[in-house]
Amino acid sequence: MVFKIVAGIGAFAISSIAFSAVTLSVPEEIKIVAINDQEIGTNFLRSNNKIKLNAGMNVISVRYSGYYQHPDNSHDILKSGVVTVKTPALTDGNNYSLALINPPQDFDQAEKYKDEPIIGLYDQNKQLLVQQAGAKASKSWLSSVFSDSDTLDATQIPPQAHQPAPIYTSQTTQATLNSNVSTQTLIQSWKHATKQERQAFMTWLAEQSN
């Protein structure tokens, strides 16, 4: 039983001990507001429009921001409400990217697009993993969303329930199901292990962190 636990959970345990990270590319027109409900600063783990995230599932709150220069040299900055993207399990060491789906091509389109932007998450093979449409900004937090600041207090982020349901690809759904099955297998192995087997496993686990 000890061998089963170690073989089944070893890689998972090691990855939990070490800092696992993925790289997320974010274009200029998408502003990161919070990660896993934690407000972030403008330069948080960001370099050349790239940020680092923990491997696994993440909740990323963003908003669309478009800059438009008019012929008379005036300009407008259009900002959407917050869109919260719940990612599938992200693989350690891989690269991912956010992008606008059906982005606006001009100012008139952008004025409509900011009301209900659509954010897509892609893997390093340019395959769409999930897309999330935003909900129209409600009056209770409209002024905060359209302020000059690129960050919001966590209490100002609208509930995910107000958004349309996310759309995951079939590939993403299957990967999530496989992950859930693996997790349940590990849990069952632990539940059926004896006290001595659990102690042996914990000893092995402690050795991996040294």
User: Unreliable stretches, pLDDT < 50, 5 or more residues?
Assistant: 11-18, 138-149
Strand order of the largest sheet: 4-1-8-9-10-11
Oligomeric status of the shown chains? single chain
Return Rg in Å. 21 Å
Major beta sheet summary? 6 strands, mixed
Number of strands: 11
Could you tell me how far the N terminus lies from the C terminus, measured between alpha carbons in angstroms?
24 Å
Nutshell version of this structure?
The chain is of the alpha+beta class and 210 residues long. The protein is built from five helices and eleven strands, in the order H-E-E-E-E-E-E-E-E-H-E-E-H-E-H-H. The longest helix is centred in the C-terminal third of the chain and has 23 residues.
Key terms:
5-stranded antiparallel beta sheet, 27% strand, 5 helices, 6-stranded mixed beta sheet, single chain, elongated, alpha+beta, 210 residues
